[in-house]
Design goal:
The chain has 125 residues and is an alpha+beta fold. The protein has one domain (12-40, 60-124): Jelly Rolls (Sandwich), CATH 2.60.120.10. Helices cover 17% and strands 45% of the residues. The protein contains one helix and ten strands; from the N terminus they run ββββββββββα. The chain has one helix at 104-124, and strands at residues 10-13, 17-24, 27-34, 38-39, 56-62, 64-69, 73-77, 81-84, 88-92, 97-103. It has a six-stranded antiparallel beta sheet with strand order 1-2-3-10-5-8. A hairpin with a 3-residue loop joins β6 and β7 (73-77). The protein is globular and about 40 Å long.
Length: 125
């Protein structure tokens, strides 16, 4: 299977970010452009250690991501390929673009928590 990043369907297009994504076999592929600095920690509440439990493989196309684990941090810059082990959170700089591959089943669990947390945030506003 192949696809240009812009062949992927746009599923999120909000002030903070744009996501183009699809499922390919057992993997999910996403191309994300971050328009504003984004700390995903509040979206992960309720997961073990309030961290994403899904592994991700990808490449930062441009910009910078800070990956926070319980015991250390890693900085990913444009041009870096990466593996993010389960148990992480990220802070992504505005203007960062990346492509990422994740196992569908594990990502679904994380996305369920993210959706619950987004809904709770919307109710408070």
């Amino acid at each position: 299977m192949r696809g240009s990043g812009f062949d992927l369907p746009k599923t999120v297009d909000v002030e903070e970010l744009t996501i183009r994504e699809a499922d390919w076999g057992e993997m999910h592929v996403g191309l994300t452009i971050c328009h504003q600095t984004l700390d995903i920690a509040p979206l992960l509440k309720g997961l073990p250690n309030d961290k994403c439990q899904c592994p991700h493989w990808g490449m930062v196309l441009k910009g910078r991501k800070l990956v926070k684990y319980v015991d250390h941090e890693e900085v990913l810059n444009g041009g870096d390929a990466y593996y993010m082990a389960p148990g992480h959170s990220t802070v992504t700089d505005a203007g960062t673009e990346w492509i990422e591959f994740s196992p569908i089943d594990e990502l679904k669990k994380t996305n369920e928590a993210v959706q619950r947390n987004l809904a709770a945030m919307d109710q408070r506003e």
